[in-house]
Amino acid sequence: MYMPFRSLVVVAVSLCGLGAAVHPSLPEVKTVYLLPMGNALDQYLANRLTKAGRFEVVTDPEKADAVFTDRLGMAFEQRWNELYPPPHEAKPAESKPEPEKHAKGDRPTDLFDNNASPAVRIGAFARGRGNIFLVSRKDRTVIWSDYATPKNMRSQSLNDTAQKIVQRLENDLNPKK
């Protein structure tokens, strides 16, 4: 059966609109915590989110309904488990082995070693590639995401990118009817 080109375009555009459904948990989010992001985008994003007024930006991760991050994967999972440790099962007391001693300058760099410098601890988060994710604390699912890259690393460009992210989030929460 032959379908005229215009009809095909109308069907394709209609189907694109179906994919824009908002995750059911997104409207429930009231408070957000931001993990460190590349080029301090988290700071610009916190500013823009606060000005928009839709979310309360919290500095205590325990008070957050969801967490913004620019990375997913193993480093994110480790950081998540630090912020929100899983419940411990009752185990018999075990003796902890002595930590390895390293000569100065011979110490391995652990991303989340509390004795490491802040730059070492957040190094993996400093390499975001433009993806932004909002992860629900309730069930650890990505409930919203976006892709936005600044034109350059100047503060105005980062601020503009944060504004675009917040505007897209607002548009997804309040779609035009």
Describe the structure.
This protein is of the alpha/beta class and 177 residues long. The chain has one domain: Double Stranded RNA Binding Domain. The chain has 5 helices and 5 strands; from the N terminus they run αβαββααββα. It has a 5-stranded mixed sheet with strand order 2-1-3-4-5, with helices on one face. α2 crosses α5.
Task: Give keywords.
single chain; alpha/beta; Double Stranded RNA Binding Domain; five-stranded mixed β-sheet; 5 helices; 33% helix
How are the elements arranged and paired?
Blueprint: H1 5-18, E1 31-34, H2 41-52, E2 56-57, E3 66-69, H3 74-83, H4 118-121, E4 131-136, E5 142-147, H5 155-173
Parallel strand pairs: 1-2, 1-3
Antiparallel strand pairs: 3-4, 4-5
What is the 3D shape? globular
Give, in spatial order, the strands making up the sheet with the most strands. 2-1-3-4-5
Proportion of helical residues: 25-40%
Look at the structure and give the mean pLDDT. Answer: 78
Beta-strand share of residues:
5-15%
Helix segment tally: 5
Which residues sit in consecutive blocks of at least 5 with pLDDT less than 50?
A: 1-19, 104-126
CA radius of gyration = 21 Å
Largest sheet: 5 strands, mixed
Count of domains:
1
Please tally the β strands and state the result. Answer: 5
CATH architecture: 2-Layer Sandwich
Query: The CATH topology is what?
Result: Double Stranded RNA Binding Domain
SSE order, one letter for each helix or strand: HEHEEHHEEH
Per CATH, the class reads Alpha Beta
Q: Structural class of the helices, strands and pairings?
A: alpha/beta
Intertermini distance: 33 Å
